Amino acid sequence: MCRLLVIAIAIGILCFRAASSTARVEYLPGFQGPLPFYLETGYVGVGENEDVQIFYYFIKSESNPDTDPLMIWISGGPGCSSITGMLYEIGPIKFEAVNYNGNIPSLVLTPYSWTKMASIIFLDIPVGSGFSYARTTRASHSNEIQLSNHAYEFMRKWLKSHPEFISNPFYVGGDSYSGRPVPIITQLISDGNEAGNEPYINLKGYILGNPLTFPEETNYRIRFANGMALISNELYESLFHTCGGEYRSEYISPDNVGCIQNLKLFEQSIYGIEPPNILESFCGFRVWLIKLPTHKLLYQHQPLSSSACRTYGYELLYNWLNEDIVREALHIRKGTIREWIRCNDDLNFTKTVLDVRSYHLNMSNKGYRSLIYSGDHDLLIPHQSTQAWIKQLNFSVIQQWRSWKHNGQIAGYTESYSNMMTFVTVKGGGHTAEYKPEECFTMFKRWISNQPL
Hints:
By secondary structure, the chain is an alpha/beta fold. It has helices spanning about 1-20, 85-90, 145-160, 180-195, 220-225, 235-245, 255-270, 310-320, 325-330, 355-365, 385-390, 435-450; strands spanning about 20-25, 40-45, 50-60, 70-75, 95, 105-110, 120-125, 135, 140-145, 170-175, 205-210, 350, 370-375, 395-405, 410-415, 420-425.
């Protein structure tokens, strides 16, 4: 009987450890010497029976972690690992830009990390992203609402195990596709606080870069391309006339030959342009820019394998995270993820929330701060579409459109509204912060410190 009791207790301990675990990372393969910042990785079980295991990377603020803001960061996709944000966009280390020779890629420090003034949890979510995994087939299915509920449950459990951060100002952040779940997560936290859920999360607001927000965004790609002289005025006017300003496939009749032909001309005109940042050399970015009723992917090229390409860094990341020595350093559970992929296109994910403007309105009415920034050379989610939905919220402008500067030079433009929302463009920027890390660092530092841009 005693032996059975001991076995039962042991099994219970093992199950608990499998559901939640954390460990500090002091050394990373490819980085010389001990890490000069605090890095923690771990899993938190969420959902029914904690069958969803969410993996995270946590970096303490390098200034004053006791009082500095705490933020969760969610990458785009859906299905892209948050380590993209950590190693390419807003984190303290990055890969050295050299050709891969089969050895462990080298990591170097970057001076433009947002962890200089905030503690950040980089979250692999939804389930199936990065090193997050499901213990059952049923648990592997997700959508925007489940993703958001999992993120909220994660934060409550994480804060219970890290009570020293409960009183810190808290923000939700992300870019690209995470423009959908971030406002939902923010509202869930706000609603939970009002309902008396424990622990109380000291929510202050949210941050979004080039965020996917509402279905009509696709239409603004045509307008952006014309404004950037990628298509002629004649083609733009013909597109508007034949398509009526609506370029989404579900609204285009297969019988509208003129519209479809003009859309083909549009794709041909931007052939060879890098959509995430039209200023950069073309490196084979594959995306639906305009999806025709025929469902034929017009914009498709073979990627170049060159260290001169920004996407080459993702190859280094792929090789690095599929090394056993790296997984051991990050405390990845053996047997859970056979092959790490930066963006998992095979997610069991259903897109159910296509428009989150109402969430922005709700959060605005509750008085939360928000920073919405747009790289002004992004063709995927053009700044005009972001400005359009912000205007539709119908809040008054309290600080008129003006330039903001970095090192004495214009770094972009900004406008602020009565709902405590600040819109910022980043001059020369692209789809994410990695295209202009220095300027985005300055922008975030000023905003998070309540200083004027």
